[in-house]
Each structure stands twice: as C-alpha cells, then as structure tokens.
Design brief:
Elements lengths: L1 H13 L2 H23 L1 H6 L1 H8 L6 H25 L1 H5 L3 H5 L5 H41 L5 H7 L1 H15 L5 H13 L4 H20 L3 H10 L23 H5 L2 H22 L5
Helix pairs in contact: 1-8, 2-5, 2-8, 5-8, 5-11, 8-10, 8-11, 8-15, 11-12, 11-15
Amino acid sequence: MNRFIWSLRRELWENPWLWRAPAAIAAVGFVGFVAYALGRLPAQVAGLAAVIAAHGSDHLREPYEVVAGVMMGIGLLLAVIYCVDALYGERRDRSVLLWKSLPVSDLETVLAKLCIPTVVLPAIVWGFTVVLQLAMLLASTAVLAAHGQSAATVWSSARVLADAGPLLYHLVALHGIATAPIYAWILLVSAWAPRAPLAWAILPPVAIGVLEKVALGTTRFAGLLLGRLGGGGAGASAGPSNGDMMQLMNPTLLGLIVAPAFWLGLAVAGLFVLGAVRVRRSAQPA
C-alpha cells in the first residue's frame, strides 16, 4: 500500500498540470462570474418576482450548474490526455528503464495510473468546483451587499453545499469508476503503440461503430461509449429528477451497483489492465 501511494504521488509530481489546469479554469470562471455578477445580478435580485415568473426559481442557480458542467468536461479531457501519454511517455523518454528498476511491480504501476483518471482527477475537479462555487457565492453576497440587497435568495437557490456530496458521487462513480473500461483501453494502447497512441486508441472504436452502423443499422456501441464518457452510469436505471442540478447525479448509487453493465465494464477494464501489465513487462523505449 505504501508503494502504491508513492506511485500515485509520483504521477502527480510528474504531471502537475492535472491540478494546475482545473485551477486555471476555475480562476477564469470566477473572473467571468464576477463580471456577470457586477453587471446583472443586482438587477435580477431587485426584480426577483419578474425573474421567477419568466425563468423559474432555478434561474439564479444556472451559473453554478454551468461551471460544474464545464469543470466536468475539463476533467474528462484531462483524463483522456493523461491516459494517452501515461505509458507511452515513459517509453518515449526512456524513463521506463529507470522505473522498472525500482521495487514496484508493473501491476502496481498500471493500477496507479488507472486510479488517476478514475479517482484522483475526479476528486481534484470536485474540490476546485466546490471552491469555485463557494467563491462565486461569496462574490454574489459582496456585490448584493454593496447594492444594499439581501443575498438570502441567492444562497437558498445556489445549494452549493447541498449538491457537493452528489457532485462528488457523480464525478468519482460515474465519470471515474464507471468509465474505467475506456481509460484502461487507452492505457493498454499507450503501453503498446509504437507511435501516435491517440490515433491507435480512437481508430478501433470508430471502426467498430462504423461496421455496426453499416451491417446492422444501429449505433449501440457508439451510444455505450458516449454514455460512459458522459457519466450516464453504463446503463444503470436513472432515478427521479427534480429539475435542477440533481439531474446530473443520476443514476443513484443503488441503481449503479445493481446494473450488470457496470460490473461487466469493470471486468473488461480488468482485462485491459492485465494486457497493459503484460505489454509493459516487456516494454522497450519507443
């Protein structure tokens, strides 16, 4: 366990952009929201009755949902970029010879690299998202106080703390663990590809999707991949929606656990991990 934790720390040391990029996006989002709050928020709160009549009570929560969605998208993009270069990069710069000389097995190394996009990166994105939303809430309070208005309505509408737990579940369970088969596939390609690992990772799924469409006239394979990447829970049944940010938190944890597709996906991810381990065991510099 100690070696595994140090392997995770090594990945973060070698790839500081995993936390710097979400931090930069959060900073840009905060600056954009401050500009929005200074220009529009006081008028919206002053005419709250008209705002609710025209857009519903969820209108004041939209900026918080937007930044959460943007941060999710950034996390997904970073996860794919990381997996593409995770094993290929150490062959390209020949550092694989050094790492293989250390008392860390290939299995521990590959599992540590898989934990980055499935657990660590979603947790990082969640942390920056919650901090950003709280900063936005405090900025709103300051702007409204400067205009002599109460921020009680904004605080009750934003529900930042109430949504923090479900957001963590959505990022780690759905965008992370449920998407493990895709990340494990990219890691396998990264361990094997002689050149251009991103192209090798994309072309086989695209070819399968095209063949399915031509032969059967269906797009189930493409829908399965996009569903996992989008945090759809791999076919797990969705719970009821209440029309706000909680729509993004479905399916429920119970629905995910009892979904056969979830466990089948983990089994497929395990096969890809074993393949990556075998390939890395005999890996030579690219």
